[in-house]
Amino acid sequence: MLDGLTKSYGGIVAVDHLSLTVGEGEFVSLLGPSGCGKTTTLQMIAGFLEPSGGRISLDGADLLAVPPNKRGLGIVFQSYALFPHMTAAENVAFGLEMRRMPRADRDARVAEVLALVGLTALADRFPNRMSGGQQQRVALARALAIRPKVLLLDEPLSNLDAKLREEMQIELRQIQQRLGTTTILVTHDQAEAMALSDRVVIMNKGRVEQIAAPDVAYSEPASPFVANFLGKTNQFPAMLRADGGRHVVAIGELAWPADTALPPGPATISVRPERIGFTAAGGLPGVLRNRVFQGNHWLLQVQTASGLVTIIRQNNGEALPAEGDRIALSWRAEDMSVMAARDTAA
Length: 346
Description:
The chain has helices at 38-46, 88-98, 103-116, 132-145, 162-179, 190-196, 214-219, 224-229, and strands at residues 2-9, 12-20, 27-31, 53-58, 61-62, 73-76, 150-154, 182-187, 199-204, 207-212, 234-243, 246-251, 254-257, 265-271, 277-278, 284-293, 297-304, 307-314, 326-330, 336-340. By secondary structure, the chain is an alpha+beta fold. It folds into 2 domains: 2-219, P-loop containing nucleotide triphosphate hydrolases (Rossmann fold); 232-340, CATH 2.40.50.140. The strands form 4 sheets. It has a 6-stranded mixed beta sheet with strand order 6-7-8-3-9-10, with helices on both faces. It has a 5-stranded antiparallel beta sheet with strand order 13-12-11-14-20. Strand 1 (2-9) and strand 2 (12-20) form a beta hairpin. Helix 2 packs across helix 3. The radius of gyration is 24 Å and the shape is globular. The two termini are 26 Å apart. 34% of the residues are buried.
């Protein structure tokens, strides 16, 4: 559990009163742009940085009073940090040797985790004779060998190519679910966080913008920053006005009832590109400026009085308007998020 965790460097606050409770067996990702404080948070949990304030506890024990090597945490770094003069098996065994595990038990544990990550045949191979994906598996096996209470992952897939990265995401999630290891991942990759996590913690300028399940954060962003950071979105300036005791969201001449606790006044509307369709009557009028084919879908850009709107249409054989055509856009009330208008800078 993190309670009011804070880290300052002089007058700069890198992490600002972050509070988070991670459940046993849960996979949580700290997600945000460079400089948002996610890596600093992970380093404080690991014991590599001393917090300026707040508490870190594990199973009720104060982790701040425990040295890094005694915290029982498994860590996988971005660079993998493998020992080049050791084989895969020797790398995996290193942490067990430091814990003075008997040789027979150690060999059995090494064989177990190497099999878990699919590297039994490479046990005697040195890191310089392995691919990036294989090295990543060794680093993961080494972290899991000590059977950590919490597994910390610091951008472990960022050095892999796109195809291998997707494959390793699937493998990593399967391994985590099989073992039930509580896991905290640091990443700037939105797709990776949403694919792996039970919950995402979206950070911006040291502060938490939203903590939610990936699908909830995507479909119901808590702020313009979250809406803009988690994939493509369209944001419109709008006004909330009271109408018969309910709030109405108005964009130009369009209005939809919306369940919102926000007071009347300026607001921001967010609508995902895949949620926007065409309508024959009413809607938001515009002109199709660009139509880009991207394999399994089309990316369309429509110029409207409310700005340039991006639309994603699946490549299902449906006829699409041509560039220069006048069209009208619409979406359902439940497909838009209504947020207070505020700074969206990363």
